[in-house]
Description:
Blueprint (H helix, E strand, L loop, with lengths): L1 E2 L8 E4 L2 E11 L7 E8 L5 E7 L3 E4 L2 E12 L2 E6 L5 E4 L15 E7 L4 E6 L3 E9 L12 E6 L4 E5 L7 E5 L4 E5 L2
Amino acid sequence: MATTADIKNGLCIEMNGDLLSVVEFLHVKPGKGGAFVRTKLKSFKTGRTIEHTFPSGAKLDIARVERRPYTFLYQDDSGYNFMHKETFEQISIQKDIINAPDFLKEGQDCEMLVHADTETPLSCELPPFVEVTITYTEPGMKGNTATNAMKDATIETGAKIKIPLFVNEGEKIRIDTRTSAYVERVK
């Protein structure tokens, strides 16, 4: 058991039969009345973010979760298949618990958040930046580079993103997996 003094970003708690992760918190001491902690919690079951206020000193059930390194192997009818990098165990998970499934390619390293008591995967996080090759894009028009103009491109995983006009087909680029945005060309 923990108290509200132990709340920090990323902490996983069990509440109302659901597993929740603390996204944001704020300790408030009003001039009148008792102190309290206002939080934003993300549910692992539904993926929704809820707001909840705890009175100061309230007891919390902390869930034991572990971050484990996995490698993406392939996708089939049962889901996305991953292999643990140390034990070589393979698991299959669904698309909805992966933070950026459009940028997964075979051999991609990622981190899986696993509930330690039940051995259930809760979420799969790709690295913040991935390097991919552009498989198709229209050529940029000469003289149209004065503005921040963007064009559509298809990358090797099949996802479609926006890239600047000066980037051409066959080039390697770096993408931010959190925002699905172009970052830079890779040499």
